[in-house]
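dumping this here so i dont lose it
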């Protein structure tokens, strides 16, 4: 259950800071580990050197106690948190950390590739989190394996685990990253029917934001992007369609301009904590020692007063990344769209909790 009093108190504090010209984060993203068991070519955590990743995770990932210290700091500002990584469910202390977040009244969205959910007590998980975001880029084996860099066996495991979420009545929705490998099922709209059959109660979509550290692009060509956007907009109008968590303006702007538009990047509204407890100001694209602050050593006020936040005032580098576009919309638009979608997800599994929205 979301603590409404806590949420109102934090939003009031956020508004008071804004009135004094002090920007502060309102959502937290915890990248719980440097390790991921997948090989997604669009993601830096897809690095095929898994031994190196495990070494890095062993030496650099925050310990259980350090994460709890970070959670305590962040919970004084943020109304909600997103747990991701790396693959967050690969941490042996995953449940302990989730339980801790719940004990300090932090609502949780877990983003996972779903490959390890069979190793987790889902009855318990359901008690502590609000939603699971399942990263299901494709509902078909071949494109899924291409986008995620995994074997058909792994695809089968993930599909089985999605059924486990449904059986255990864990509220969940799907997120798909659209690349040149998986456009077809959005154009013919089969993704949505198949997602519904797999128990998804809402959908979030983003086109892939190409990495700057690799030579290749995974973005579909302009024509295919327009076809996808038109088809999604058409699907959104159909009666009984799954709720789309990304507003229609995202798709309309891509049709018209080939990218999203926003006045000012809203990255400062969330605090993105890396697996080693650092925060890069304003974001990962400006990774340098001067822009990197340890949340174990500094306060959020100190980090949010850093002059490098000014970079985000004019940066429009992220062209199609759904989360950056969403955070760059007015706060009321974000809240309205997110809560409308979420009420549908909650309603499906927990009619008793629907008052949250
Ligand atoms: C980095 S992953 C970490 C959590 C978990 N391992 C997973 O796969 O869901 C978090 C989300 O970022 C998305 N993602 C990764 N690279 C991306 C990119 N280049 N553009 C857009 N989304 C991306 C993934 O698909 C996933 O939904």
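and the seq i came up w/
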């Amino acid at each position: 259950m979301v603590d409404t009093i806590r949420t109102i108190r934090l939003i009031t504090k956020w508004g008071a800071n804004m009135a004094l010209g002090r920007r502060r984060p309102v959502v937290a993203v915890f990248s719980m580990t440097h390790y991921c068991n997948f090989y997604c070519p669009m993601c830096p955590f897809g690095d095929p050197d898994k031994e190196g990743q495990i070494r890095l995770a062993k030496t650099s990932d925050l310990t259980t106690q350090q994460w709890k210290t970070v959670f305590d700091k962040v919970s004084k500002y943020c109304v909600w948190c997103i747990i991701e990584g790396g693959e967050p469910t690969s941490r042996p202390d995953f449940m302990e950390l989730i339980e801790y977040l719940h004990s300090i009244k932090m609502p949780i969205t877990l983003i996972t590739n779903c490959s390890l959910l069979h190793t987790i007590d889902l009855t318990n998980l359901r008690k502590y989190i609000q939603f699971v975001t399942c990263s299901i880029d494709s509902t078909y084996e071949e494109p899924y394996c291409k986008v995620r860099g995994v074997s058909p066996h792994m695809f089968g495991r993930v599909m089985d685990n999605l059924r486990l979420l449904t059986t255990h009545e864990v509220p969940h929705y799907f997120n798909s990253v659209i690349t040149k490998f998986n456009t077809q099922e959005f154009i013919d709209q089969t993704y949505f029917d198949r997602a519904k059959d797999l128990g998804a109660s809402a959908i979030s979509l983003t086109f892939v934001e190409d990495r700057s550290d690799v030579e290749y692009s995974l973005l579909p060509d302009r024509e295919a992007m327009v076809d996808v956007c038109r088809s999604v907009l058409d699907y959104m109008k159909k009666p009984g369609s799954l709720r789309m968590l990304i507003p229609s303006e995202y798709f309309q702007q891509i049709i018209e301009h080939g990218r999203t538009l926003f006045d000012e990047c809203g990255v400062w509204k969330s605090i993105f904590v890396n697996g080693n407890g650092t925060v890069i100001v304003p974001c990962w694209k400006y990774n340098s020692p001067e822009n990197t602050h340890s949340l174990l050593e500094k306060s959020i006020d100190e980090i949010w007063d850093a002059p490098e936040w000014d970079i985000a005032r004019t940066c429009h580098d992220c062209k199609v990344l759904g989360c950056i576009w969403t955070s760059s919309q007015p706060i009321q638009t974000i809240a309205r769209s997110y809560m409308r979608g979420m009420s549908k997800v909650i309603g499906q599994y927990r009619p008793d909790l629907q008052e949250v929205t």
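The first strand starts at residue 27 and ends at 31.
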